[in-house]
Amino acid sequence: MLTRRAFLAYTGAGVLTLYVTSAAGVTEAVAAVPGGTLNPKKVKKYVTPLLVPPAMSRSSDGPVGVDYYEIALSQIDQQILPAGLPPTPVWGYGTEIGLTNAPSYSIEATTGRPVRIKWINKLVNENGTYLPHLLPVDPTLHWANPGGGPGGTDTRPDFTGRTFVPLEQFRDPEEQYTTYQGPVPMVVHLHGAVGVGDESDGYPEAWTLPDASDIPEGYATGGRWRDFFRTAAKDRLGLEWADGYAVVQYPNAQRPATLWFHDHTLGMTRVNVYAGPAGFFLLRDPRGDHGTITVRRSGAPAVLPGPAPQRGDPEGRTYYEIPLAIQDRSFNADGSLFYPDTRAFFDGTTGPYIPDGDISPVFNPEVFGNMIMVNGRTWPYHQVEQRRYRLRLLNGCDARTLIVDFSGIPEVDVWQIGNDGGLLPAPVHLTTATKNKALLAPAERADLIVDFTGVPVGSHQLRNVGPDAPYGSGRFKAADPSTTGRIMQFRVVPATTRDPSTPPADLVLPPVEPLPTATSTRKLSLTEQTSETADIPVTAMLGTVDDKGETHHLEWSAPVEVNPAATATEVWEIYNTTMDAHPIHVHEVTFEVVNRQPISVTEPTEEGHSPMVAVPSGTVPKPPQVWELGRKETVIAYPGEVTRIRLHFPDTGGQFVWHCHILEHEDNEMMLPLRIGLDDTYGPGSAEA
User: Ranges for the Plastocyanin-like domain (predicted)?
Assistant: First the structure.
């Protein structure tokens, strides 16, 4: 994360106008990303078969008309690295009658049919005592803070009079503090769900600890909003919560789409998700592809590549629809996950740390792994036939923007038919539009049809040409081609049967109903706060823009200012004054990307003021990229631009959030409440910062 102050000093400019160019501006590769004690260059590539996630088994005792699951988060040892290297302790979601994995097996869902899930925090040992976190948790952020006790959770703790020390040096709690070692909070968010009750959305302050036998005295077992939403779940849906679990319901009253679920605990999402808990939630039309997608010339029902995994499939079944969760991780030689335990890892900063300064001792503003996993295995291979496949891509990285590159596969033909909001208005030929590249910021998805029909028999690599560093578009150095520049290998063999799927060029996708005309515009800002003691970034923040163009950052604990009325349609103008491209995710809705436009950013000349933004005269708005058409719920806000989106809010109110989906940013103040159709009397009240 490059500070604006450092950038302006480097350029000598006082007023900055940026014009973002295409993501294809790639230059030479960089050195390997630092990480743990396991050297990524010595880890074998393409020796482990890809895991195609099976469909998760439902529980047998659910209510009529509802798909019911009981899914627990537990710790397992998983063979992520190639055979011969140690297994990795991770956390995964799993059912009582299925296997736990990281990422988990997929949930298959149908539009119009609710899914009810009992999410269980089972991060306990066999004897029922709690498991500590696998990764270093910085206690100086505004975070869940179970040790604050009832009434003291979800705050930024005060460490006055104490000095941070690494865990191995921690001796005196009166004089020292270290990383959090207590029971782990958990709350699950279904990313991309629309029209969900706020009690089921996975609000960051609705977490629960495991129902362990040794919860320390004085600890809170749930977040500040948990009791409020527990009552709401009972009153609205008749759902019972208890220690260690919550029962939620997703109505699935939305367009079919590639959704995914992950942890969303306040100030801990980055380390919780890095430890493993995530999975696909594939929402389908009850009619299947038939009747919703047609053939251009005949109007007959079209056929997409399939099948996808279904419950009860026989072992060894061949699939032509495959979800691919792409994530970056680093490892130690003992197989364990590596995540930085000091700010010095990011930029060499050694303090002064909180409370003597304003720098958190452990938190890193962005973390990039030095190995690539697909579906929980490093650099796997998958055998494909010379035919069409439907590949559902997810960027599940904490901070890394991917540019998934098929161009090294000769004669491959790539089409995109959907994004994170569902099917596009029309197929996009990526082979023509982007030279076979798909840009994916963290949390974005791409629904692709990849045609291997003309690809020569043999082994071919899927690559990543995104950066090994924060993404800002424009020119950048591509990922290390020997490690993070590789994703997986396709081993192409002759087709065994005739391909019944419809050529993508002939597909007519269902129309996307436009949102109503907006009646108001809301101006929002993305800013970066630098340390008062060093020229380094402390945090990135969301905020507002006033009528004069001055930005005003807001903390998580501030009064809620993003409070649209129920059924309102708004245009949000998101002004990015930072040097990073931020993937902005809005809960509860999907939206339309309207356009982007260059802005000027003027640094303040007086103390107490923030950067000023303006749209220079003569600049022209740029339409969304063709793969952003239809609906989205995560949009890239580029540096030096205003990104405009149109949102329509539901008639049922609630407390949700909007945030940057770079998880390190989200965890340290780049997230704000979104309160729809309600006033300040709703909820348990505001926590103190």
Answer: 559-675
